[in-house]
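Hi Y.,

Following your request, here is the sequence exactly as I used it, all 260 residues.
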Amino acid sequence: MLVDDRQRTVYAVAHEHRDDPHALALALSQGAKCPACDGAVFGRRPSTKVWHWVHKVGSPDCPGSASESEWHLRMKRALQAGGYALEVYDRKLALRFDAVATKESHDFKIVEVVNSFSESYSIKAFVINSAFGSPPTLWIFNEASIRSTTGRVLPRFANLMTRLTYEHHTVWVYGSKLWQWDGNGDILQHPLHARILAEFEGVSLREAEANVTARVRAQAYARKKAAEEKAAAKEKRAAENVMIDPYKRMFAKWKHNRAF
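Below is the corresponding structure, written out as tokens. Let me know if you'd prefer a different format.
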């Protein structure tokens, strides 16, 4: 492990440092800093890859966070604004969580943000359920990533999200709106939605909350109007059938008599 004079990490925790207590302590430290942007970093210690440092909340301007997508960074910033702790490592489970609740008022204890597909998500979900007994866990997927060029949800994502839902996890999808995977496509009116909207659309939290409320009302109105139009069309068809039925009976009787 190499650090500069301000004790900020300069290079990754490499394989040769696995048995170094100082390196391990730094890897698990909540106070490690990036030498490029001075942002908080944490140590990842995979079993098959080189150990390395990752930004808790990266910045597109920092070369150290270039591998993390802008969508993922923004979603993490929204969660942080909502009071969640980012990039929390559970030593017992040897798992890293994107965000963990810090308040009793948080209805989700663990939040995972998904921008690209990985088989490891199924394993992580299984470990979470086995260790904690199905805690309220939220998974947020990027709608742009889960859909094909034709607009259909890619099978690998559909299977993963369906499995997560079956295992009692909550699955949200964020694109032009925030909606729940196992729901009917309704826009969700949730405190996190306003945080996400404020981050992605660059508006204040108050504006975002008003925006979410307006969208929910507009969708409810559109749904109500569609239901009314459907009911009116059904009544119209029923009335037309009442008028046509006598003529149908007369024609059927004439056709029957003609046969004999």
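The helical segments are 21-28, 70-81, 120-132, 143-146, 155-166, 191-201, 205-259.

Thanks again,
Q.
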